[in-house]
Design a protein that fits this description.
11 helices; mainly alpha
Length: about 775
């Protein structure tokens, strides 16, 4: 009984352990790592029988190929195996392949059932039946071993199939790559063919345009032939009218000759009047320039007076400062002795009265200067108004004379234009007679050109038909290849979802090729239209040939008429040639008169310009001498300032230490300013020397120009050549540039002189304060 009780207790313990393991197993089914823990439960349940080996083998098989069904679905099958066989294999493999978790559950359920049967048998007093459970376990192990062998064989088959599928997918990828390259090459070929088609279309358009141009030319020729017939009929009437006009022109020529002689006499009188007026203008300009010089001198005097007034004002301010210093000094001395202070006060009052008198005198002088300036400005304005009135009257006279002269020239030009128009009419009549004779030969040459163009168009049409046939064949081949590619791509799309991008690219290529096909169809339609156009062109050319033959017949008739009229035209030409000679002689005389007048005007303008330049050079020399005097005055002032500084250095010991420091700083600043003034003085001297050299060069050049003018104004040589005129123009431009530079330098020097004067005045004031 003890054995039975111990066996029942051990079985209860086993049941409790089995229940715990079931709970653990259920919990572990929710988490990964399911196969390993189920194998551990199987090993703990039955020590005699080890089903964990089977579970581990099955789990290892599944672990080695965890994605075998996915590979089987996603990898592309070879073309040999059909889709139905693939699906059958998959279904059999899935049926034959139980998972490790289901197997472990099955074993646990059997083990629990066995334990329950044993516990019931023990409770009921029956003997445990161990042999049946062992036999069942052995049968189960055999079944599992058979399943393992089947799974291993299936896995080996699947591995072989997977390897085959991988090789086939690699081959398909290589084929796709090659086909892509070939497709790109074919696209390039299609682009070149499209360019060729566009070129052919352009040539066809050009040919059509040429055809339209030829048709328009033929219509124009018809119109011209009709117009020429009308013109030939009109020419007879015009010849009669032209004879009458020639007689009238002879009369007009005689009257024009007499009037031209009168105009020449009048022009000579006008030229004399113009010369007189020009002399008066020249004199008035000289007076104006003299007044301007006087004004400039007066302005210089005014500026000097203004500078003197400013200097006096500064002196007044300095005197005020001295008075303030004296008052301070008197306040300081008030604390000292009374006698000395009284004496100093008397002396200071006397100095103050003297300074006040000087200030009043300076103010009176300034007022007189301002009054004189106002009077002079009023006088100058009045004189300028008078000169302007005189110049206005002279210019009015000149304009009236020039207007009369221009009227005479215009009348002469009108007579000449009438003669030229008559000549042109006769030349047109001759050219029209020649053109009618030439039109027949031109028409035949145009017919030959049209035939040659028609042959060229036929050749181009044949070549385009051949090219289009080749293109159609090429496109048919491309379409067949595209259909093959579409079939292969459809299979690949069903087998693999990762290759969707390739399909999209191929579809875009397909659309491009469909567009090319539509374009090819359009080109075929255009070629059919062109063929119809060529047929129409041939019909039109035949009609043109018949029309040209009729026009040739008309041309022969016109040539006979023109031969009759040419005899009459020869007589007219001889008469016109004699009249042309007379007109040429008259024109030469008029041209000579114009040249002489123009040369005289140029010479007079040059003389005026050179005289003005000579006056400018004289003014420059005067200004240079004035600036040199200013520089000498500045040098004397600088020497005086140096003497004052030396005296101020001697008087240093009288002042206190604080005053010594201030005077040292002031003296240092004064020395620096004096050095600057000396450097600027040297620069001014150099600039003055440069300006003197420039003035000398200008005077030399002016003398040369005057000599050249004298040479050109000789009575024997009235004509000035173009080369001499260009040389004179260049020299005048160079003189003007140098004059402007000299004026700029002069303005800069005057500015610097003003600055130096201001600095000198400041230095004088500082030296006076130091002397105090």
């Amino acid at each position: 009984m003890a054995d039975v009780v111990s066996s029942t207790l051990s079985k209860k313990d086993k049941l409790a352990a089995a229940r715990k393991k079931l709970k653990r197993f259920k919990e572990k089914n929710k988490t990964p790592g399911q196969d390993t823990k189920s194998s551990s439960t199987r090993s703990s349940v039955s020590p005699s029988f080890n089903p964990s080996i089977v579970g581990e083998k099955t789990s290892s098989v599944t672990d080695q190929n965890p994605h075998l069904p996915d590979l089987h679905i996603n990898e592309s099958y070879p073309e040999r195996i059909s889709d139905k066989s693939k699906k059958q294999l998959l279904s059999e493999m899935l049926k034959m392949r139980p998972t490790a978790s289901t197997e472990s559950l099955h074993q646990l359920s059997q083990h629990i059932n066995d334990l329950l049967h044993e516990s019931n048998a023990i409770i009921n007093g029956e003997a445990p039946v161990e042999n049946s459970s062992v036999a069942q376990l052995e049968e189960r192990n055999r079944e599992l071993a058979a399943l393992l062998e089947k799974h291993i064989q299936a896995n080996e088959q699947l591995n072989v199939q997977v390897q085959q599928l991988r090789d086939q997918s690699q081959q398909l990828q290589n084929e796709l790559h090659e086909e892509k390259q070939s497709f790109v090459d074919k696209q390039r070929d299609v682009g070149s063919l499209k360019d060729q088609l566009q070129v052919h279309i352009q040539t066809i358009g050009i040919l059509v345009a040429e055809k339209t141009e030829l048709q328009s030319k033929i219509d124009q020729l018809k119109k011209q032939s009709d117009q020429r017939l009308d013109e030939i009929e009109e020419m007879g009437g015009r010849l009669r009218v032209s004879r009458q006009r020639i007689t009238e022109l002879e009369r007009n020529m005689s009257s024009i000759n007499s009037s031209s002689q009168q105009y020449e006499k009048n022009s000579k009188g006008y030229a004399k009047d113009i010369d007189k007026l020009k002399l008066e203008l020249y004199k008035s300009n000289q007076t104006v320039e003299e007044l301007q010089q006087q004004l400039s001198e007066l302005n210089g005097k005014l500026s000097s007076k203004v500078s003197d007034c400013l200097a006096h004002e500064q002196n007044v301010e300095d005197l005020r400062k001295k008075l303030e210093m004296a008052e301070l000094y008197t306040q300081q001395l008030s604390s000292q002795s009374d006698k000395e202070s009284l004496k100093l006060i008397d002396s200071l009052q006397q100095e103050r009265e003297e300074y006040i008198k000087k200030v009043e005198h300076y103010q009176e002088a300034f007022q007189t200067v301002t009054n004189e300036r106002n009077q002079q400005s009023e006088q100058y304005q009045h004189y300028i108004d008078q000169l302007q009135q005189q110049t206005q009257s002279l210019t009015n006279q000149v304009t009236s004379l020039t207007d009369e002269r221009e009227k005479l020239y215009s009348e002469q030009h009108e007579a000449e234009s009438k003669m030229h128009s008559l000549r042109r009419q006769l030349e047109k009549a001759e050219s029209q007679s020649q053109c009618v004779s030439i039109s027949s030969s031109d028409l035949q040459s145009e017919i030959n050109k049209l035939r040659a163009d028609y042959e060229e168009l036929a050749k181009r049409h044949e070549t385009q038909i051949r090219d289009n046939a080749q293109l159609s064949r090429f496109l048919d081949e491309k379409e067949n290849k595209i259909m093959d590619l579409e079939s292969t791509v459809g299979d690949l799309k069903e087998e693999s979802s990762n290759k969707a991008q390739l399909l999209e690219n191929i579809q875009s290529d397909k659309t491009a090729l469909s567009r090319a096909l539509t374009q090819n169809k359009d080109l075929k339609q255009q070629l059919a239209e062109l063929q119809n156009g060529f047929v129409k062109m041939s019909n039109d050319s035949m009609e043109l040939m018949t029309k040209l033959q009729s026009e040739e017949h008309r041309g022969h008739e016109l040539a006979d008429r023109l031969a009759q009229q040419e005899d009459e035209l020869k007589d007219m030409r001889e008469l016109l040639a004699s009249r042309d000679l007379k007109l040429d002689e008259i024109q030469k005389c008029a041209d000579n008169l114009q040249r002489e007048n123009y040369q005289q005007e140029q010479i007079q303008d040059r003389l005026r310009h050179y005289e003005a330049q000579a006056q400018l050079v004289e003014t420059l020399q005067r200004e240079l001498s004035a600036s040199q005097d200013m520089m000498n005055a500045l040098t004397t002032q600088n020497s005086e300032l140096r003497n004052m500084l030396v005296k101020s250095r001697d008087n240093k010991d009288i002042y206190d230490e604080s005053k010594d420091e201030k005077s040292d700083t002031i003296i240092g600043s004064l020395q620096a300013t004096i050095c600057q003034l000396e450097a600027e003085r040297n620069q001014l001297i150099e600039n003055l020397n440069d300006q003197r050299n420039l003035s000398d060069n200008l005077s030399v050049k002016v003398a040369d120009v005057e000599e050249q003018l004298k040479m050109t104004t000789n009575p024997d040589e009235n004509i000035v050549s173009r080369v001499e005129f260009d040389k004179l123009k260049k020299t005048m431009e160079a003189i003007q540039e140098k004059y402007t530079r000299a004026m700029r330098d002069k303005a800069d020097l005057s500015d610097k002189a003003d600055q130096l004067e201001h600095l000198v005045l400041q230095l004088q004031g500082e030296t006076d304060t130091i002397g105090m």
